[in-house]
Specification:
The complex is a heterodimer of chains A (114) and B (114).
Chain A lengths: L2 E3 L4 E5 L4 E3 L2 E3 L4 E8 L5 E7 L5 E3 L5 E5 L4 E6 L8 E9 L7 E2 L3 E6 L1
Parallel strand pairs in A: 2-12
Antiparallel strand pairs in A: 1-4, 3-9, 5-6, 5-10, 7-8, 8-9, 10-11, 10-12
Chain B lengths: L4 E3 L2 E4 L5 E6 L6 E8 L3 E9 L2 E5 L6 E5 L5 E5 L8 E8 L9 E2 L3 E5 L1
Parallel strand pairs in B: 2-11
Antiparallel strand pairs in B: 1-3, 3-8, 4-5, 4-9, 5-6, 7-8, 9-10, 9-11
Classes of the chains: A mainly beta (114), B mainly beta (114).
Chain lengths: 114, 114
């Protein structure tokens, strides 16, 4: 069965420093991987996705993610964190031929301090 | 383009009652998915509709049902409400049914069951 793990409930970063939010996955075939962000009392906003091709994926708001097949990981990164990046981040996986069904990780709370 | 809209935004119901939530997808989007978000279980997939047909279903009891209309708008219904149904219900749309498409989420309906 497909699953996603986000090993850190919370990540604390100083503004201007690089940030990494970790995600590992388990699927039976080739994975389709996604990152979403949720601000308080809001729905989820799409950041980026990996379907195939280049292992480094660039997305919205300066975020990028690196797909590592051997480590089954898809970590979210940003070179320089902003206070406004503070939010709840979700990694999600989808299997081929499962349509839109997303399996989400438990989420990681990112806190960026000035 | 207007985003995904959900109505109502907030709802308070009593145990045993039933409730209907509505979702209007982004114009031109034909696939609609529903998710339940709770602090304990996180984000869980409920079901997905495309061209008025349910294409996928999560592991929820039969009290949870949905439908999609010819204009792609969708409704979900929960009958015989239980306290554990209190959650944020999120609707998401995508252009077509398929694993490579990202989903765009609405702001959610906050359901409280007393």
């Amino acid at each position: 069965a497909q699953s996603v793990a986000q090993p850190e409930d919370q990540v604390n970063v100083a503004e201007g420093n690089p940030l990494t939010v970790k995600c590992t996955y388990s699927v039976s075939g080739n994975p389709y991987l996604f990152w979403y962000v949720q601000y308080p009392n809001r729905g989820l906003q799409f950041l980026l996705k990996y379907i195939t091709g280049d292992n480094l994926v660039k997305g919205s708001y300066g975020f990028e993610a690196e797909f590592n097949k051997s480590q089954t990981s898809f970590h979210l990164k940003k070179p320089s964190a902003l206070v406004s990046d503070s939010a709840l981040y979700f990694c999600a996986v989808r299997e081929y031929n499962q349509g839109g069904k997303l399996i989400f990780g438990q989420g990681t709370e990112l806190s960026v301090k000035p | 383009k207007a985003g995904v809209t959900q109505t109502p935004r907030y709802l308070i119901k009593t145990r045993g009652q039933q409730v209907t939530l509505s979702c209007s997808p982004i114009s031109g989007h034909r696939s609609v998915s529903w998710y339940q978000q709770t602090p304990g279980q996180g984000l869980q997939f409920l079901f997905e509709y495309f061209s008025e047909t349910q294409r996928n279903k999560g592991n929820f009891p039969g009290r949870f049902s949905g439908r999609q209309f010819s204009n792609s708008r969708s409704e979900m219904n929960v009958s015989t409400l239980e306290l554990g149904d209190s959650a944020l219900y999120l609707c998401a749309s995508s252009p077509y049914w398929g694993s490579s498409y990202e989903q765009y989420f609405g702001p959610g309906t906050r359901l409280t069951v007393t």
